[in-house]
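Q: KCNKI protein, please. Structure only.
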Amino acid sequence: MASTSQPLRGKMACKKIFWAVFPHACFILSLVIYAFLGALMFYYIEGKREVNLSEEYRKFLQNLTYIARQLSDNMTENDKFKKEIRDLFNTADQVWFINPEERWSFFGSLFFCCTVFTTVGYGNTYPVTRLGKYLCMLYALFGIPLMFLVLTDMGDILATVLSKCYNEFRKLQSRILASKLCSGSTCSKRNELKSRAQSKIVINEPLTIMEVLKSQSSMKRGPVKYRNVELFEMLIARENEHTKPARNKSMERWSSCPELATGKTMSRVIENFDKIGKELEKLDVPILLMMIVIFVYISCAAAILPNWEKNMDFQEAFYFCFITLTTIGFGDTQLEHPKFFLFFSLYIIIGMEIVFIAFKLGQDRLIVLYKKVISFCAEKKMPSKKVYPK
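A: Structure for KCNKI protein:
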């Protein structure tokens, strides 16, 4: 019997783990599928488009050819053409110099989709066709809420991890401090008080009044008013034991036959969906700790990114990662190998969650500060009570 129950318990434990992880995996998988579908869509719409030379492009080439013919080998004479060349290139469109098949490859389209639903939007890649622009708006309309849902869900996981780590650190710190301050005599007194506090009257089963009086010999030695109080508490405990609701029969069936617990399992899965964002609301860690975490997190990527982006040093990579994780996305720093950085998509999502948690903590601190300022100003404006002599 024991040999058959152990595999059953193992299966039930695996099922519990699966249904606990299922909501989180469902969100991430849906975001990945959404990104791949968008990449295929923009690859065929923007990457396969026909390049038509416009009239503005022909005029640009004519003006550029005219300026080039006037240039000479004397560099001092060519200084007067610098402004003309600068003004000419300011009128140029970036699309004229881009090969759609190279820019809108599958990995390039996937990188563009990630910049859309993460709201980064570097600006160096954007749809040109009318159909591509309409589909980009529709794609962002559903992709951005899905991305925020993933951020909130995974933010709960990070908030739980941060809360537990911070609480364990505080407990360890308090234990070390208590061990330093605690002497032999004081510790013995604390243990004695603790043992007295734990020896409270507990009634697990309903007893009669005579059994209560016989079992508690310490009551007989106490004063009368304390005996009455303790007796009254025991009678209340006995009455509460009688008024407890009857045990649900379906619960007993679930405990004896786990196969019947499918409804209970599904209700727990639905509860997991309903609890999204709750842990993030309860998070309370110092804002300085979050600033240190963000600095270390960005520094790790800034040390790795220059290995394949040769035009970046550590400072430029740190600036680029910060602009990306905060979803500012100026687009002033362009990547030579965006598909390599695309493999850091998990890094981007987790980093955006960390920044989001830091913004949430900063928002809470600002709300507390505003409340204090408003209450302080209200107290100052309150008229002082005048005390009249009797």
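A: Brief note, in case it's useful. Residues 199-203, 249-261 have pLDDT under 50 and may be disordered.
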